[in-house]
Design goal:
The chain contains eight helices and eight strands, in the order βαβαβαβαβαβαβαβα. The chain is of the alpha/beta class. Strands 1-2-3-4-5-6-7-8 form an eight-stranded parallel β-barrel, surrounded by eight helices. It is globular and about 45 Å long. The model has no long low-confidence stretch (mean pLDDT 87).
Length: 257
């Protein structure tokens, strides 16, 4: 089941209440709360308060995003991030990998660490979602190869349709990760003026994403990661995406919530 959400980092304001007010007015269904400027890993008190404030705004917390390197991070940091995600009532902890800093890691080492972290997330009933920045390559494999070899039911990745790629290229990149995608990320620029014109393409994206593993009743967040200067400019696209989700559920004879 598709939920159209927005990243808290997409807003210029670092005030949580302002983020919720703007997100609700635009028509988003959920928010991905981030560590930078909003919620520190391990701050369970703030996370629990934010969870209730988000619900009162008519929204849900679809994900908690933290910026750190999977290989360099220790278990202590992961456990702190999981505590915040759980108190936030978020089903996903998204790890945003930093840009390459001159240090390469072997794919085997990365997979070993990801499995360890995945086991920890599973013990808390959460899914780990790894976002490889700019499809970062590690020695021995890229994101698709790593996810294939990883094979952990509680470790997934994110996928983003790119503005500079054709529909066929986007679907090819999706097919390589099918069944392993926990979040679909979208840059607002790919939505500007094109959502309704390319309705068939967007419905293909959303249908393929929603039906991974034949489980369309699982919550599938589409997270808008950036916003235009004029927030009202994104509202039409958000409404269109929500309508596409409803149309797809009706097409498949599924209940519309």
């Amino acid at each position: 089941m598709i939920k159209i959400a927005v990243s808290s980092l997409a807003f210029k304001s670092k005030d949580m209440n302002s983020v919720l007010t703007d997100a609700a007015s635009i028509g988003f269904q959920g928010v991905e709360w981030c560590d930078k400027g909003f919620l520190s890993p391990g701050d369970e008190k703030t996370a629990a308060e934010l969870m209730m404030t988000t619900l009162r705004a008519g929204l849900t917390s679809v994900s908690y995003a933290c910026h750190f390197s999977m290989v360099q991070a220790d278990t202590k940091l992961l456990k702190a991030a999981l505590k915040s995600a759980k108190a936030l009532n978020s089903p996903i902890l998204r790890i945003i990998e930093p840009e390459c800093s001159g240090t390469d890691f072997k794919a085997g080492d990365y997979i070993k660490k990801a499995r360890l972290f995945g086991d920890e997330a599973a013990s808390q009933g959460l899914t780990l979602c790894i976002s490889f920045v700019a499809e970062r390559q590690l020695k021995g494999g890229g994101a698709a190869e790593i996810m294939e070899d990883l094979g952990h039911p509680f470790v997934k990745t994110s996928w983003e349709p790119k503005l500079d790629r054709s529909f066929d290229d986007c679907m090819e990149s999706f097919s390589l990760l099918k069944g392993k995608i926990a979040a679909m990320l979208v840059n607002h620029k790919i939505l500007d003026g094109s959502t309704e014109k390319k309705s068939e393409e967007w419905m293909h994206f959303m249908d393929a994403y929603d039906w991974q593993g034949g489980s369309p009743d699982m919550s599938r967040p589409i997270i808008i990661c950036s916003l235009p200067e004029k927030l009202s400019a994104i509202q039409t696209a958000v409404d269109a995406l929500k309508n596409f989700g409803i149309m797809l559920r009706r097409y498949h004879g599924l209940r519309v919530y």
